[in-house]
Amino acid sequence: MDKKLYIQSYCKIKNNEVILDGKIIFKEDSRLLKDFLKSAFKNSEISYSKFFKMDNLCKLAFLATEYILKDFEHKNTNIAVVFSNNASSLDTDRSYQDSINDIDNYYPSPAVFVYTLPNISIGEISIRHQLKSENAFFVFDNYNADFHHCYENSLIQTEKSDGVLGGWVNVDSENYEAFVYLVSEYGIMEHTEKNLIILYKN
User: In terms of Cα–Cα distance, which of 82, 78, 50 is closest to 65?
Assistant: First the structure.
């Protein structure tokens, strides 16, 4: 018999706001994404020096996850991570290309090159929380609630994971958006395609 699954918690980061389970918990009128992410990180009161070495996509995914797991006593490492976006790692790809194009200061930085794959954000989260289950990063034109719902359900129903961190994390220059949630057997709302769409759009 299939388990009944729920959205245990969710976090949205967009328009200089951090929303956790429907409530605005941080807001700042920062002009630049990097400044807003830095302020949101300080507001989270998390101590993690590696944060400042990440690219913007990783920082966004990392922050959304931290706000969800901050007060969640999880010692279970069997949590999968399934993210998607429509820009892949384009934001960092541009920076890397700029370093190649700069004839006067030519030297493609390995520190930037590391982040020219979107799934590095999953790696950073997995290292931080010692997650050892399935993980994947997909690229779609838009947030695909049907795909996420089916894939996330499948991971838990087939016992490949006990829970799933899922969602949409996208950065393209100063345009950014994160919608990340934790799926488990307990929660505030049933994990359905309809509910995922409602939470994403509201």
Answer: 82
Query: How many angstroms separate the first and last alpha carbons of the chain?
Result: 32
Tokens, residue 26? 């941080």
CATH code of the domain occupying 6-201: 3.40.47.10
Residue 28: count of CB within 10 angstroms of its CB: 13
Q: Where are the domains of the chain?
A: 6-201
Residue 130's CB is within 10 A of a number of other CB atoms, namely: 11
For the cut 80, the answer to whether the pLDDT of residue 110 exceeds it is: no
Looking at the DSSP assignment, which residues form a beta bridge with residue 44?
A: none
Q: Average of pLDDT values for 108-130?
A: 86
Mean pLDDT of 179-200: 96
Query: With helix as H, strand as E and coil as C, how does 132-174 read?
Result: CCCEEEEECCCCCHHHHHHHHHHHHHCCCCCEEEEEEEEEECC
pTM for this model (two decimals): 0.91
Q: What is the mean pLDDT of residues 94-113?
A: 73
